[in-house]
Write a structure and sequence with these properties.
Layout: E1 7-11, E2 15-22, E3 31-32, E4 36-43, E5 45-50, E6 56-62, E7 67-73, E8 76-79, E9 86-88, E10 90-95, E11 101-108
Antiparallel strand pairs: 1-2, 2-11, 3-10, 4-7, 4-11, 5-6, 5-10, 7-8, 8-9
Amino acid sequence: MGEVGTTKVYENDKVIMWEFVLEPGEQTPLHTHQHDYVFYVLDGAPLQVFDAGGNELGTFDATAGSVFPLRLEGDDLVSTDDQGHRVPATHSARNAGPTRYREILVESK
C-alpha cells in the first residue's frame, strides 16, 4: 500500500507534512489515511477518486488555493467544512486534468 503523499517534508510528535504531486493521467497507489488531515492545493486539477476495489467514486475539482479539511470517522474521511465530501479512508486518486496537480497535506497525529 502506498503513502498518503509523494514526499514527506516534515514530521514531529503532532503532525506529518507531505508534498503531493500527480502529473496528468497519473494515479496514486491505493493508500489508507490513518489520521485527520487538511490539504492545501498549490496547482489545481480535477481529481478522480477510486475505492479499494477500483470503483470510481467521482471527480472533484481541486482548484489552486482550495483547502480541504478531513476528519477520520471509522473507515471514512469526512469533510469538516460545508463541502460535504465523504470518501473511504482507503482509496486512490487520479489526476484527470491536463496539468500537474500539487498540494501540501498535513496530517494531525
